[in-house]
Automatic annotation (TrEMBL):
Short name of any one Pfam family annotated for the protein: ABC_tran
Residues annotated as domain ABC transporter: 8-249
Name under which the protein is recorded: Branched-chain amino acid transport system ATP-binding protein
Originating species: Mesorhizobium tianshanense
PANTHER family in the cross-refs: ABC TRANSPORTER ATP-BINDING PROTEIN, CONSERVED COMPONENT OF ABC TRANSPORTER FOR NATURAL AMINO ACIDS-RELATED
Taxonomic path: Bacteria, Pseudomonadati, Pseudomonadota, Alphaproteobacteria, Hyphomicrobiales
Length: 253
């Protein structure tokens, strides 16, 4: 039976490093299928918030719920098994593997973590088919057998997303997925993100406001660790506080 729970919910999350408060009472919900952007000036606490949600850091207080189940103290891998996956700002790929090898490995690792240690020949074929499906969805099928190091950087970032998809996520957290990608390729990369399956909720950090306003259905604005505003793009664009503390500075609105 479908539940009405949001895919992800945070409640009053707080985190300090010494006397520096980097996450202040952050409460928000990510509904199923969401395409939300997390924006804010440098140092606003965006990556820290992602690290708290994934379990790479523990909050000082507050709660995190995945599909209504509390995971605040759960290890990162347990959260991955419950459908929470992230990508990083930096490239984390193996340069000598091909995309099909990398995605297959990720699928085998997923199944091993789920307790499925042994595969019949038929199920290997199923895994290969699944790998090609993922690569096709991310427009990487044509380069599936080329070593990763020979791929243009934009395709390497797409391969990172393919590896994330191999975990069968319900919530996908993308930390600057287009970082380092030439501007004319980043819109193509985000159109792939927008076209991900409708049951995956996506939260992405992105600095390019043209991209944010084109691809986010809703925007969370973080300033000094706290949520200044969460609203539809048109409302964020017109909010004078956002202009003043963030957008005005970079002059994109
Ligand atoms: N492990 C840490 N120990 C101490 N301070 C940290 C740590 N991680 C982050 N900070 C500080 O916390 C604040 C928030 O950093 P964070 O990386 O979350 O911001 P951000 O919004 O992602 O920034 P950017 O847009 O530049 O990536 C910054 O002042 C940063 O220096």
């Amino acid at each position: 039976m479908e539940t009405q729970q949001p895919a992800l919910r945070t409640e009053a999350l707080c985190k300090s490093f010494g006397s520096l408060k980097v996450t202040r009472d952050v409460t928000f919900e990510l509904p199923r299928g969401a395409r939300y952007a997390l924006i804010g000036p440098n140092g606003a606490g965006k990556t820290t918030l992602i690290n708290l949600i994934t379990g790479e850091m523990r909050p000082d207080s507050g709660r995190i719920l995945l599909d209504g189940r509390e995971v605040t103290q759960a290890p990162t891998m347990a959260r991955v098994r419950q459908g929470l996956t992230r990508t990083f700002q930096i490239n984390t790929l193996f340069p000598d593997l091909t995309p099909i090898e990398a995605v297959l490995l990720a699928i085998c690792e997923r199944d091993r973590a789920a307790g499925q240690f042994w595969r019949s020949l038929t199920s290997h074929r199923v895994a290969i088919d699944e790998s090609f499906e993922i690569l096709t969805r991310l427009r990487l099928a044509e380069v599936a057998t080329r070593p990763t190091r020979t791929l243009p950087y934009g395709q390497q970032r797409l391969l990172e997303m393919a590896l994330a998809l191999a975990t069968k996520p319900k919530v996908l957290l993308l930390d600057e997925p287009a970082a380092g990608v030439p501007k004319d390729e980043s819109a193509a990369l985000f159109s792939v993100i927008a076209a991900l399956p409708g049951d995956i909720a996506v939260l992405f950090i992105e600095h390019d406001m043209d991209i944010v306003f084109s691809f986010a259905s809703r925007i969370i604005v973080l300033v000094s660790g706290g949520v200044l505003l969460e609203a539809e793009p048109a409302v964020v664009r017109g909010d004078p506080r956002v202009r003043e503390v963030y957008l005005g500075k970079v002059g994109h609105v």
